[in-house]
Amino acid sequence: MNDKMRKIFSMLLLPLLFVVVLFPKQADAKGSSCTAVIPVEITVAGEKIPSGVEYKVVLEAVTKDAPMPEKTSIVVKDAGKGQFGVMTYTEPGDYQYRVRQEDGKADRFTYDTTAYLVTVRVVNDGQDGLKAEVWAVREGSSEKADAVRFKNSYQAPEEHHDDDDDDDDDDDVVVTPPQNPTGLQSPQTGDQANVALWGSLTGLALAALAAMALIHHTDRKKQKNKITD
User: Fold this and answer.
1) Is the pLDDT at 24 greater than 90, yes or no?
2) What is the pTM of this model?
3) Is pLDDT above 50 for 184?
4) In sequence order, what DSSP letters do the residues of the chain get, joined into one string?
5) Domain boundaries, given as residue ranges, for the chain
6) What is the CATH number of domain 26-154?
């Protein structure tokens, strides 16, 4: 009788031990969790890029009921890096998100309009826990991207140099060739008037000299005639 009771007790105890041993493990596995973040990067190409410019990146859930970070938009100032997170996962599965950069309004900037599809895959870690794997692809592509990176650019205004203005002025100068290629100075209007005046005076002087010579010749002839008589 006692042996029979022992066998019955043993048969009842064995399932009870399974319940005690297995149920806590199942509870731990179900209650375990893992976290993930989604890093992003902003780059800006160009010269003399203004400081203080902010770039806004937005995260949207694609998978229904996907865990979300506390903030679904982040601002990166003067380029650099940021991240969305921390997001907590309690169930294995694939969770997808769409990450894009908002089109900014800063003058002379061109904003990258690429959108990324980010996947967070939650799996068992083999130790009754969970772990997350994160990767991203550009929308319209099947290749994994090395990072969620937005490449912006800046076109600096053209500089205005004074030296260039001087060169332009020099180009506009018109050089007038000399009127007299022989090197002799041609008389101008005023010079022609002076020449006429001097010509007239010279003519009068010559006429006066001729008259004086004639008078002198006449006087000598008269004196000679008187001596002869």
Assistant:
1) no
2) 0.59
3) no
4) -HHHHHHHHHHHHHHHHHHHHHHHHHHHHHH--EEEEEEEEEEEESSSPPSS-EEEEEEEE-STT----S-SEEEEESSEEEEEEEEEE-S-EEEEEEEEE-----TTEE----EEEEEEEEEE-SSSSEEEEEEEEETT--SBPSS-EEEEEE-PPPP--HHHHHHHHHHH--PPPPS-TTSPPPP-HHHHHHHHHHHHHHHHHHHHHHHHHHHHHHHHHHHHHHHH-
5) 26-154, 192-222
6) 2.60.40.3050
